[in-house]
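Need residues for this backbone.
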C-alpha cells in the first residue's frame, strides 16, 4: 500500500443518526486502483483544523462490490475532526486521504458458512462492510448480527440494515440491543456483555458459527471473546477490531512522562526504511516511541491513532529488539513474523532496524 495522501472531493454526506454522518468520496478514474479496498478496511484522513494537523482513521462501511468509497464518522465528545465532519463538512469539500489499509477482513469458510458479528455503536462500520461482502460473495452464507446502541435513534445504518434483512431474509439475522431504551423483552435491553450473551443463548445458536467478528469498545470485545471461546469457538476464528481503548490515554501519558527522562539510560541506534530510503537517529530506551522520535526527526511516517489500535504505523522489525506498550491491532501471526506498531515501540537493543516497505 501507499502511505501517500491524496486529496479527494466529497460526493455525498448522509446523516445516519443525530451524531453520525457517512461520507462518500468521489474517487477519480486515475485513482480507482489506488483506492480499491477490501471489506473491513479503513482510511486515514489528514486535515488541518484551527492550524493543527489532525489525523484520524475511520472504517469503510461500503463493500467492494458497491463501487463506492464511504466511511462513517460518529461525533465524540471533544473530538476535533468528528465534530468538524458532523457539523461543518459539506459536499464538494476535500479531504486528504491515505489509501485503504487494515486486516479486519472476511474469512470465508466453505464447510460451515455461518458467521456471527457483535458490534456496538460505530463498531458497526467495518462490520456492515464485512456482512455485505460475505452475503454478496458467498451465496450459501448466513450472518447473525448482534448490535448494541443507546436507543433506536442511535442505531447507525438503521435503514440499510433493515433493507439487508429484507433482501437476505433467510440469511441475515439482526438482533438490536438497546442500552437506554426498553422497547421489547429484557434480553434486548442493556449492554452487550457475557450475561447478555448468555441470555441470548435461546435465540442465537452460538455453537454453530465458524467465525465471529467483533468491533466496539475494549470491554465488550474481551467479554464477547471470552464468552465465545467458552462456548466452543476457536479463538483463531474470532476476529476483532477496537475503536476506542480505555488504556489509550494512559499509554500516551506514559509515553509523555517517559520523554522527560529520555536522556537517561541506554541509547539505541534506530534505522528506519521507507520507500527504499533509510535514515537513522539515536533514541533512549526509555524515550518516546520510535514513531514519535522519527517524526520529530523529520520523517514522514504513516500514523493515525497513536494508541495501538488502527495499525496504520505497522512496520517490520528486521533486526534488534523492541517492546510495545500496547497492541490492539496486530494478530499473533503478525507479531510472530516480526511486525510491530511503531507508535507503541521502544528499543531494547543497541541497534534496531525498522522496515516500512515490507507488507
Ligand atoms: S498509529 Fe494507530 S496503531 Fe500506531
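Answer:
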Amino acid at each position: 500500500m501507499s502511505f501517500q495522501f491524496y486529496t479527494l472531493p466529497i460526493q455525498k454526506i448522509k446523516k445516519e443518526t443525530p451524531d453520525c454522518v457517512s461520507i462518500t468520496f468521489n474517487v477519480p478514474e486515475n485513482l480507482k486502483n489506488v483506492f480499491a479496498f477490501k471489506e473491513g478496511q479503513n482510511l486515514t484522513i489528514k486535515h488541518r483544523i484551527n492550524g493543527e494537523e489532525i489525523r484520524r482513521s475511520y472504517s469503510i462501511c461500503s463493500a467492494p462490490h458497491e463501487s463506492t468509497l464511504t466511511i462513517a464518522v460518529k461525533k465524540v465528545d471533544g473530538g476535533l475532526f468528528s465534530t468538524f465532519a458532523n457539523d461543518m463538512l459539506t459536499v464538494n469539500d476535500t479531504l486528504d486521504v491515505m489509501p485503504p489499509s487494515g486486516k479486519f477482513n472476511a474469512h470465508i469458510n466453505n464447510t460451515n458458512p455461518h458467521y456471527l458479528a457483535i458490534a456496538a455503536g460505530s463498531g458497526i462500520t467495518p462490520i456492515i462492510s464485512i456482512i455485505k461482502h460475505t452475503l454478496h460473495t458467498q451465496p450459501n452464507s448466513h450472518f447473525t448480527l448482534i448490535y448494541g446502541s443507546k436507543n433506536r435513534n442511535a442505531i447507525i445504518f438503521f435503514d440499510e440494515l433493515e433493507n439487508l434483512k429484507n433482501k437476505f431474509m433467510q440469511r441475515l439475522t439482526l438482533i438490536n440491543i438497546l442500552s437506554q431504551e426498553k422497547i421489547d423483552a429484557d434480553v434486548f435491553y442493556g449492554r452487550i456483555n457475557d450475561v447478555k450473551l448468555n441470555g441470548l443463548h435461546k435465540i442465537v445458536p452460538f455453537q454453530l458459527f465458524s467465525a465471529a467478528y467483533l468491533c466496539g469498545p475494549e470491554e465488550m470485545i474481551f467479554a464477547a471473546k471470552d464468552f465465545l471461546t467458552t462456548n466452543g469457538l476457536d479463538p483463531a476464528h474470532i476476529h476483532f477490531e477496537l475503536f476506542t481503548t480505555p488504556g489509550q490515554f494512559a499509554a500516551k501519558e506514559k509515553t509523555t512522562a517517559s520523554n522527560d527522562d529520555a536522556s537517561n539510560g541506554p541509547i539505541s541506534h534506530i534505522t528506519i526504511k521507507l520507500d527504499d530510503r533509510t535514515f537513522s537517529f539515536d533514541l533512549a530506551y526509555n524515550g518516546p516511541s520510535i514513531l514519535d522520535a522519527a517524526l520529530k526527526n523529520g520523517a514522514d511516517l504513516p500514523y493515525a491513532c497513536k494508541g495501538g489500535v488502527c495499525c496504520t504505523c505497522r512496520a517490520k522489525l528486521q533486526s534488534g529488539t523492541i517492546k510495545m506498550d500496547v497492541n490492539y491491532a496486530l494478530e499473533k501471526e503478525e507479531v510472530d513474523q516480526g511486525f510491530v506498531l511503531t507508535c507503541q515501540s521502544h528499543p531494547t537493543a543497541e541497534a534496531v532496524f525498522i522496515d516500512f516497505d515490507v507488507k
